[in-house]
Structure formats: structure tokens, C-alpha cells
Specification:
CATH topology of the largest domain: Rossmann fold
Shape: elongated
CATH class of the largest domain: Alpha Beta
Distance between the termini: 51 Å
Number of domains: 2
Length: 238
């Protein structure tokens, strides 16, 4: 609103993470701009993890704006992730394809017998990365906040003073090891990521959001990816 009780319309708006907005939010944002053609909308439906809001779909977005489907530009090259990471990510998303982009190491798969072995494996992996490059930011991504808190406490026994919890306003991006959960990392990036216990219990194939959450976790890394679990891996990964 302006000082006279009227409304000030915007010349242009940019909407990011469009897949997480519902019809009402879209309508409000469209009403805030002078010309509906003066809108840039960016999103990735594979990263939708807020399922309480139903994305209207790209076809309806362009129809609402009075445009045609040629207005949709699909970006094919990831400038964050390497080719091996994106190859796995597209497979998880149910859209396997040949990927172009940066070369990099293949994802590592680690299956262990118990939580102690899991913690040791994550500590060894993190320690090795930081020894090679002390400026790396390593993220250990759990499914739930409680799991992240428990893992952080255990990791302190192996890497005292080097591990911190990432949760809401507690996030910091200094080099070191950050333990967090999947809903905290959307939109963020790290040098290295370990997806912790990506198994059927945490990410059941029957739930649509499981595929998207694993996709989000995988695509947070710039270089290194470890998938470490005790129980069998989620079917979503294969």
C-alpha cells in the first residue's frame, strides 16, 4: 500500500522455488505486478518437498500469464553438481538421461552393521575430506531433526570441536562438519554431502515426497557424495 491508502504495483517480480507455491500464493503475486508478462518464475518440481501446497504446474502458469509453452526454458546443465551426481539425481527423479557438465568423483555407497559403525564411517569420511582441504564445508544430512541431533552428539566423540548442528537460525557456513536434516537444506549448497540412512524406513518408495527429498539431498553437493546406511537402501535410489 502507498501513503494514500492505495496500492503500489511492481514493475517486475522474480519468483524462486515456484514449485512450493500454491494457487492462492501465485494469484497474490501476480496481482502485485503491473504487467503479467513482467514476471520471471524459476523452479524445479523435483525439489518440491512441501506437499501441503499444490503446485499448479508449468502449463497452467503460462496459461495464466497469457503465454505459450515455448516460454518455458528448461535448463539442462547443473553448475553446482558434477556429472556423476546429476546422473544419480535424474535417476532418482525418474528421469534418467545423459548429463553434461563438470566431471567429478562417483558417489560413494557405504553399508554398515550398526550405528557405531555408521558414525565411525561418517567421521572417517569427513576427516579425510578436511585433511585434503581444510576449507571444505561437509554436510551430514539426516531425514529428521532428532536424528541429526543424535548424530551430532556421537560425532563429537570422533571430531571434538569440529562438528556443529544446522537447524533454522543455528546455521553457519564456516569450514567444518555440519549435521542437519533434509528440510533444512533446500536451496543451500555444500562442498561435500553425506546422505545419512537413505533407507526404506526414512524414505519409503510409496510416498511421493521420498523421491523429491532424496533428490534435494543429493543435489546439495558440489563435489563429493556419500550414501551411508545401516538398513537396505531405499528403492527410490535404484
Amino acid at each position: 500500500p502507498d501513503g494514500d491508502g492505495g496500492t503500489v504495483l511492481l514493475d517486475h517480480i522474480v519468483i524462486d522455488e515456484a514449485q512450493d507455491f500454491g494457487p492462492v500464493e501465485f494469484a497474490i503475486m501476480m496481482d502485485a505486478v503491473r504487467d503479467k508478462h513482467q514476471v520471471t518464475i524459476v523452479g524445479d518440481v523435483a525439489q518440491k518437498i512441501l506437499f501441503a501446497r499444490k503446485f499448479i504446474g508449468w502449463k497452467k502458469v503460462v496459461e495464466y500469464l497469457g503465454l505459450d509453452e515455448d516460454s518455458i526454458i528448461q535448463l539442462e546443465v547443473s553448475f553446482r553438481c558434477t556429472v556423476p551426481i546429476m546422473t544419480l539425481a535424474y535417476k532418482v527423479a525418474g528421469d534418467p538421461k545423459t548429463v553434461e557438465g563438470r566431471a567429478g568423483p562417483a558417489p560413494e555407497w557405504k553399508k554398515v552393521d550398526n550405528f557405531v559403525d555408521l558414525t565411525e564411517a561418517l567421521a572417517d569420511w569427513s576427516r579425510g575430506l578436511l585433511r585434503a582441504d581444510p576449507y571444505k564445508l561437509v554436510a551430514l544430512i539426516c531425514r529428521y531433526p532428532k536424528q541429526a541431533m543424535e548424530l551430532k552428539e556421537e560425532m563429537e566423540n570422533y571430531l571434538p570441536g569440529e562438528v556443529r548442528l544446522g537447524h533454522r537460525d543455528q546455521f553457519s557456513f564456516e569450514p567444518g562438519v555440519l549435521v542437519t536434516n533434509i528440510h533444512q537444506v533446500k536451496g543451500l549448497e555444500f562442498d561435500s554431502v553425506a546422505l545419512v540412512e537413505p533407507d526404506e524406513e526414512n524414505y519409503p518408495e510409496k510416498r511421493e515426497e521420498s523421491r523429491n527429498m532424496i533428490y534435494v539431498g543429493i543435489t546439495r553437493t558440489q563435489e563429493d557424495l556419500l550414501l551411508a546406511t545401516i538398513r537396505p537402501y531405499s528403492s527410490v535410489l535404484f
